[in-house]
Amino acid sequence: MANVIVIGGGIVGLSVAYYLAKENVEVTLVDADHTGQATTAAAGIICPWVSQRRNKKWYQLAKNSASFYPTLIDELKNQGISTTGYKQTGALVIRKEEKTLQKIYEMTQQRLVDAPEIGEVTRLNVAETKQRFPLLDEKYQSIYVSGAARVNGGKLRKSLLEACMNHGVKIITGEASLVKTANHANIKVNDTLIEADQIVLANGSWFSTIVESLGLNGLIRPQKAQIVSLKWKEDDTGDWPVIMPRGTHYIVPFEHGQIAAGTTHEDDVGWDTHVTPIGLQKIFSDLREVAPALLSSALVKVNVGFRPVAPDFLPVFGRLPGYERIYAANGLGSSGLTTGPFIGRELAKMILRKDGILDAKDYPIHSIIKSSE
């Protein structure tokens, strides 16, 4: 196959590049290394089965993505890449209301039929819940989902980058732009024009900027996220389950007392990378409600990233309309760490003209663009 240039070095771009290179495709990956890249800033929870989102297409994508993760991690480990940032620790879905918790429990039990990777689904009382995560407030019952996992976005990105390099992917750091030709485009990066037979746009929140030269208005918008990294006084947190309360808050424990807590969903703030008092107030207010003991932990740092959000809040992938040899994947939003590797592999299969699991028509690229000509 001819050469492919992938623009974007986040989880989607690296996954596409890796799965193309595995098939002996000549791949060049161009990454601007933007401040605020979503993958690097994020801590993720792989547990889509308890989601109450009504969009069935999103759930099918997320379910397949969660099922795919162990395969990817095994591939990386077989290449000697052991520090992937992924670990199956289980999740505690916590609620105060018995009725709400029972509804989630019954829904998850039903989903077990098509998703055995969910593992054990167990109702826990207040004492049992606190035993699993000692820092929780003493008012929560929970559902324990054994198949759930956590992901450190920065570590996963590094592992995929290493895998790409192991398979001969050429890495260029710089801001890429598209130079339109008759029915295709070339890439310009660091004042150098590069010809490509196939192009993949996987540059997340910066998608709308890069397609302007093609006469397209991108509809992807950046959503700012602030996430705090805490250090608990005890080190035995590596096997603790992730915590999934109501709403957008979450707690993700890692090894050696490192705990991530978040997050904010800030729209219409542009590319502001500052840590803000109002953002921290939101996170710590949620933390006080769920695990007040963590307010006495050490604040290590605050990460800021930008989620790429689509108009329909549904990730998309496929060919760019009007361009047979330009592909894109975007709009992953807050499910980026869950769905990114799987979407990357699906897009690689499309480029290779192999059958994927999903129908790209259900995740249409045309929903994130409109012509400006």
Automatic annotation (TrEMBL):
Q: Which InterPro entries match?
A: FAD-dep_OxRdtase, FAD/NAD-bd_sf
- Pfam families per the record? DAO
Per its UniProt record, what Gene3D superfamilies does this chain match? Answer: D-Amino Acid Oxidase, subunit A, domain 2, FAD/NAD(P)-binding domain
- Superkingdom as given in the UniProt entry: Bacteria
List the GO terms this entry assigns under cellular component, sorted alphabetically: cytoplasm
Q: Boundaries of each FAD dependent oxidoreductase domain copy?
A: 4-350
Protein keywords: Flavoprotein, Oxidoreductase
Per the entry, which co-factors are needed?
FAD
Q: Molecular function (GO) terms listed?
A: oxidoreductase activity
**Which positions are tagged coiled coil?**
none
Family in the record: Belongs to the DadA oxidoreductase family.
User: What's the name of the protein?
Assistant: FAD-dependent oxidoreductase
Q: Which organism is it from?
A: Gracilibacillus dipsosauri
